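Teaching assistant's notes for section 4

Start the section by putting this record on the projector. Ask students to predict, before seeing the second block, whether Centrosomal protein POC5 will look compact or extended. Collect guesses on the board.
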Amino acid sequence: RAAAKDGWLSSRSERSSQASPVIAKSFIPLKTSHADRTAGQSSSRRPALSENVPSERSGSNSPEALHEFAATEIFISEENINKMESILDTWSSNLKSNVLMELRKWKLTFMEQHKVEMKKEKERHATQTAGLKAELESLKELLHTYETSNQRKDQ
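Reveal the predicted structure now:
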């Protein structure tokens, strides 16, 4: 199998037609000895990993001696792996398209909000400009009145 840079199997890797072993650690307390467990297993189905807590650590009456942990192999057929790969490909494709669609919606919403804010700002600016023009006209009239008043005094 070809592994990608990150250590995961790539979807383009070649697969054999055999079942692929998946090693899963199961932490099931076992009261039987390692010899009893392995005696009933065929050599092809024997776990690739086993983690046994040594019983001579604290004596035979310790809790560690009563609980042993074993790793078991689960065989998954190539057909099931291919089905799972197809499902994951579809799921990731759907996820990608849904995320992109949401991003486009957010972009449009943001653009609309920006338009509304710009319109409000333009209206505020127009109102402020109109107010300043009115004040300027009022000041011009006041200046004209003042000049007229000064001319009358001078006569």
